[in-house]
């Protein structure tokens, strides 16, 4: 006899038991769930509370819960999961409820979301998975909404339904899919949020009902004037408001802006509206453009205006008869033609940029007629730079018409970029006409320099006089600068053609940087000069900014160049770690793919990926050269790169970089003449009076080079050693690390005062001090600054053994150092060295070969407690013998 499978037997027994009432239905449901769990697949079940009918039976996996065609509202919902054994996580959900809005807390795992016995409709829903379930599954859901029917599928916490339209949900379907699997259907529009509402006051008819999102408010073909308007934003998800003002018969433009449902215009005065301006504020302005067009007497529908531009007519006595308003995602196409959105007689002003300068010629039209009719007439031009709808900087100029030459007058807009220009015409001081337009002050090429750290700023600053003229056209190239260490520049001394990024105020330029702001500036600059070339200069460890400033702004490949500037020793540290693997070429190809994939995505979406934030993927700096042909990478030395294949790959890097020596660049700068050197000194806040005291006292200068203040725990001992070694022939100065300026550390200032050491401005690059003061000497902590020091300048090195400093693996050239000092730790030092330390504050001084040959001693020990130096030479029998 053939045996039946156990599952069939169990099913038969279970069915029989249920037939005769031996097993309740709930037990059967439980058995079915147990079977589902054993299959290894998750399921979702849900039920809804429906108007009139109350709670419905549970349905599962995409089946419809609710009603269709009965106009019954959903009032609440419960959702739960049947999960495979061993998988953690659950389901959370919340609803948008009539009168209440979105629930504050998410409900979960079968609890009720919504209301009962309150007759409140559900209008939208969000559903999401948690724990391991969210990593293995996507949850899709769609709703049947009043008026719209079935909307598209939402997933994983997205909103489904409507907002601001008082539309009920009538039914819902919910489905689980494996992570990343295809959606059950279209996902284009699961959520309809009505964004803008407006109502007009019409001649003879009075106030009309609100309409929304591009619908017509007013009349067409009835010759009835609009007399007033109310507009309100209905976007609870974002902050911001809508502002508007109208041009009214007899009165002209309203002085102030109305907002959020306030009436603009008149009521009961029989005055026609002739034009309107509408704008957004806050997050709404950042995320949307507001477009509007009007139906004007005689002209019919005019073109679409946006974001505060004028729409309608003025000085033509033409009434507005209807209006359409709608929000469009920022930067997306207008709803239709934008031609002739505003028509005005007489007041026609022409703006023309003079070549590629910041001068703009302004020619008001109809001047003779205006002067004849109104002798006391002026025109005022305001050119504003805005960021996030806020005016950051502006230029203004007002002229009497009688003083304006036939060819117009000139106005310096002061910088390059996208300007919002307002032109006001005044008669006897009263504004009778206002025009607005967007105007670009542009150039055929730009140098873009959002720079961080010290070394890249030094590189860039020394090259300013080499990159400011186009090799192709011979024209001056505007250079737009922003520094993370802003105090390195005197912003009042920018050379000709150099500008601070206009989206930061003059005050902010002196104190901070913001690379998101700079990327937006590039975007707007490209918008007004789409055919220009953009030359980007950045710190190599900031290479992710290429995605922000170039790729996400969709600048074409042939319209940009990239120059990466070495951060200093960090460059070599990052690269050597990245390629210190067994197969560096394979690693390199991996990074190239990573970079190119993110580049392609940025161009496709118009935004950079979440994992390409600030300082992200700096290990890709060499990959940039492979992905961006023509890119230059400036480094101080090319022999410091290493790789895990016995440096074979490092040789490849070496052949691709461009070596830029600071000393050579400084010499080249000097060769350009005293005027250029003085410009450079003025820009870089360079102070030739740093060492005036030493000059007055006829003493030499010893500059002690610091590191991060919090790493200088033994500074007092090292300073005492240096002063004891060199004596009173020197005055001693301290140059701190730019990241920890002495001025921010009172305890450091106190220490320097106690030691009689003068502080030097830490924001000034040490290489500059050495260059402009070649007679000084320098000792201190390890730094790439020693690469720029001559052998005469380089004296002592703190906290480093001679063997380590002179190792081929060192990223800094310390070959010119006279002595190398390090703390004697008796627990780890050799017995010979440990025996020379008389207490716990003793330091070993190891001398260069040249000093050993000249002086006849090999080492010295500095006793910090007693402030003495003892000199020793090596002895094969006893180790070391005292010389003096």
How would you portray this structure in words?
The chain has 884 residues and is an alpha+beta fold. Helices cover 23% and strands 33% of the residues. It is globular. The N terminus is likely disordered.
Please name the defining characteristics of this protein.
884 residues, alpha+beta, ten-stranded mixed beta sheet, seven-stranded parallel beta sheet, 22 helices, disordered N terminus
> How is the largest sheet built, in terms of strand order?
49-48-47-50-51-52-53-54-55-56
In terms of structural class, how would the helical and strand content be classed? alpha+beta
- Major pleated sheet: 10 strands, mixed
**Globular, elongated, flat, extended or rod-shaped: what is the shape?**
globular
Amount of beta strand: 25-35%
> How many beta strands in the DSSP annotation?
56
Q: Ranges with pLDDT <50 over ≥5 residues? A: 1-33
User: What value does the average pLDDT take?
Assistant: 89
**What does the radius of gyration come to?**
37 Å
Summed up, the helix count is: 22
**In percent, how helical is the residue content?**
10-25%
Calculate the terminal CA-CA distance, rounded to whole Å: 109 Å
Give a quick precis of the structure.
With 884 residues, the protein is α+β, with helices and mostly antiparallel strands. 23% of the residues lie in helices and 33% in strands.
SSE arrangement:
Blueprint: H1 6-19, H2 25-39, E1 43-50, E2 54-55, E3 59-60, E4 65-66, E5 74-82, E6 91-97, E7 101-102, E8 107-108, E9 112-114, E10 122-129, H3 131-136, E11 137-145, E12 149-150, E13 154-155, E14 160-163, E15 169-178, E16 191-193, E17 196-202, E18 206-207, E19 211-212, E20 217-218, E21 226-233, E22 242-248, E23 252-253, E24 258-259, E25 264-265, E26 273-280, H4 282-287, E27 288-296, E28 300-301, E29 305-306, E30 310-314, E31 320-329, E32 342-344, E33 349-353, E34 359-364, H5 367-373, E35 377-387, E36 390-400, E37 409-412, E38 417-427, E39 430-441, E40 445-451, H6 455-467, E41 479-483, E42 498-500, H7 506-509, H8 515-528, E43 533-539, H9 545-551, E44 560-565, H10 569-578, H11 584-605, H12 621-627, E45 632-635, H13 648-656, E46 658-659, H14 662-671, H15 674-683, H16 692-696, E47 700-705, H17 715-726, E48 730-735, H18 746-755, E49 758-760, H19 766-772, E50 777-781, E51 794-798, H20 802-805, E52 819-823, H21 831-834, E53 842-847, H22 849-855, E54 859-863, E55 868-875, E56 879-882
Parallel strand pairs: 14-16, 30-32, 40-41, 40-43, 41-42, 43-44, 44-45, 45-46, 47-48, 47-50, 48-49, 50-51, 51-52
Antiparallel strand pairs: 1-2, 1-3, 1-5, 4-15, 5-9, 6-7, 6-8, 6-10, 10-14, 11-12, 11-13, 11-15, 17-18, 17-19, 17-21, 20-31, 21-25, 22-23, 22-24, 22-26, 26-30, 27-28, 27-29, 27-31, 33-34, 34-37, 35-36, 35-38, 38-39, 52-53, 53-54, 54-55, 55-56
Helix pairs in contact: 6-14, 8-9, 11-12
């Amino acid at each position: 006899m053939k045996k039946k499978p156990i599952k069939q037997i169990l099913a038969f027994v279970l069915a029989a038991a249920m037939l005769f009432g031996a097993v309740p239905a709930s037990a059967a449901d439980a058995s079915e769930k147990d079977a589902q769990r054993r299959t290894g697949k998750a399921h979702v079940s849900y039920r809804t509370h429906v108007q009139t009918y109350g709670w419905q039976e549970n349905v599962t996996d995409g089946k419809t819960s609710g009603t269709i065609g009965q106009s019954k509202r959903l009032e609440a919902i419960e959702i739960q999961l049947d999960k495979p054994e061993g998988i953690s996580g659950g389901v959370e959900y919340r609803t948008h409820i009539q009168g209440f809005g979105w629930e504050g807390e998410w409900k979960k795992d079968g609890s009720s979301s919504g209301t009962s016995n309150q007759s409140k409709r559900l209008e939208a829903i969000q559903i999401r998975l948690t724990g391991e379930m969210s990593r293995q599954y996507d949850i899709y859901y769609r709703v049947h909404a009043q008026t719209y029917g079935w909307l598209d599928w939402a997933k994983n916490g997205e909103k489904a339904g409507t907002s601001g339209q008082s539309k009920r949900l009538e039914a819902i379907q919910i489905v689980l899919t494996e992570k990343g699997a295809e959606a059950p259907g279209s996902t284009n529009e699961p959520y309809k949020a009505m964004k803008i509402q407006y109502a007009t006051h019409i001649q003879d008819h009075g106030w009309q009902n609100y309409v929304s999102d591009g619908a017509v408010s007013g009349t067409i073909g009835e010759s009835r004037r609009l007399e007033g308007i109310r507009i309100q934003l209905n976007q609870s998800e974002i902050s911001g408001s809508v502002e508007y003002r109208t041009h009214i018969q007899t009165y002209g433009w309203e002085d102030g802006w109305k907002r959020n449902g306030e009436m603009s215009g008149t009521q009961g005065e029989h005055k026609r509206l002739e034009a309107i301006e509408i704008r957004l504020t806050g997050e709404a302005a950042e995320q949307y453009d507001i477009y509007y067009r009007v139906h004007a007497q005689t002209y019919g529908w005019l073109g679409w205006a946006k974001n505060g531009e004028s729409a309608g007519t003025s000085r033509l006595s033409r009434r507005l008869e209807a209006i359409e308003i709608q929000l469009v995602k920022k930067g997306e196409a207008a709803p239709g033609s934008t031609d002739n959105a505003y028509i005005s007689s007489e007041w026609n002003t022409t703006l023309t940029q003079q070549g590629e300068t910041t001068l703009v010629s302004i020619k008001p039209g109809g001047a003779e007629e205006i002067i004849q009719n109104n002798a006391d007439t002026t025109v005022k031009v305001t050119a504003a730079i805005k960021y996030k709808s806020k005016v950051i900087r502006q230029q203004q100029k007002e002229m009497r018409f009688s003083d304006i030459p036939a060819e117009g007058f000139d106005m310096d807009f002061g910088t390059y970029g996208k300007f919002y220009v307002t032109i006001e015409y005044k008669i006897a001081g009263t504004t009778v006409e206002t025009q607005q337009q967007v105007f670009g002050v542009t150039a055929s090429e730009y140098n873009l320099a959002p720079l961080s750290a010290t070394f890249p700023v030094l590189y860039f600053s020394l090259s300013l006089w080499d990159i400011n003229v186009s090799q192709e056209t011979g024209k001056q190239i505007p250079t737009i600068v922003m520094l993370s260490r802003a105090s390195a520049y005197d912003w009042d001394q920018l050379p000709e053609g150099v500008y601070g990024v206009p989206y930061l105020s003059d005050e902010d330029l002196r104190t901070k940087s913001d690379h998101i702001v700079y990327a937006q500036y590039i975007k707007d600059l490209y918008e007004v000069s789409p055919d220009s070339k953009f030359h980007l200069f950045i710190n190599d460890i900031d290479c992710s900014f290429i995605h922000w400033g170039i790729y996400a702004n969709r600048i074409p490949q042939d319209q940009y160049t990239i120059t990466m500037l070495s951060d200093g020793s960090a460059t070599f540290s990052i690269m050597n770690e990245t390629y210190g693997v067994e197969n560096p070429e394979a690693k390199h190809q991996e990074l190239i793919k990573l970079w190119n994939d993110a580049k392609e995505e940025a161009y496709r979406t118009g935004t950079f990926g979440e994992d390409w934030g600030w300082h992200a993927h700096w290990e890709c700096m060499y990959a940039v050269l492979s992905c961006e042909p023509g890119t230059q990478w400036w480094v101080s030395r090319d022999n410091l790169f290493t790789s895990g294949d016995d440096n074979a790959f490092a040789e490849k890097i070496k052949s691709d970089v461009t070596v830029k020596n600071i000393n050579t660049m400084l010499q080249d700068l000097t060769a350009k003449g005293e005027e250029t050197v003085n410009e450079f000194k003025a820009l870089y806040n360079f102070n030739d009076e740093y060492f005036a005291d030493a000059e007055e006292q006829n003493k030499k200068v010893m500059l002690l080079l610091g590191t991060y203040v919090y790493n200088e725990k033994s500074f007092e001992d090292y300073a005492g050693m240096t002063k004891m070694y060199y004596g009173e022939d020197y005055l001693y100065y301290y140059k701190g690390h730019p990241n920890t300026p002495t001025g921010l550390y009172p305890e450091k200032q106190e220490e320097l005062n106690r030691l009689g050491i003068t502080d030097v401005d830490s924001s000034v690059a040490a290489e500059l001090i050495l260059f402009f003061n070649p007679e000084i000497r320098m000792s201190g902590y390890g730094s790439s600054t020693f690469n720029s020091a001559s052998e005469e300048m380089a004296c002592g090195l703190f906290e480093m053994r001679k063997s380590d400093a002179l190792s081929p693996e060192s990223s800094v050239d310390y070959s010119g150092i006279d002595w190398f000092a390090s703390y004697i730790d008796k627990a780890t030092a050799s017995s010979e060295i440990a025996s020379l330390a008389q207490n716990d504050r003793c330091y070993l001084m190891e001398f260069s070969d040249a000093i050993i040959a000249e002086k006849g001693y090999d080492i010295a020990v500095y006793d910090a407690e007693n402030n003495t130096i003892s000199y020793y030479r090596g002895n094969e029998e006893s180790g070391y013998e005292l010389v003096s």
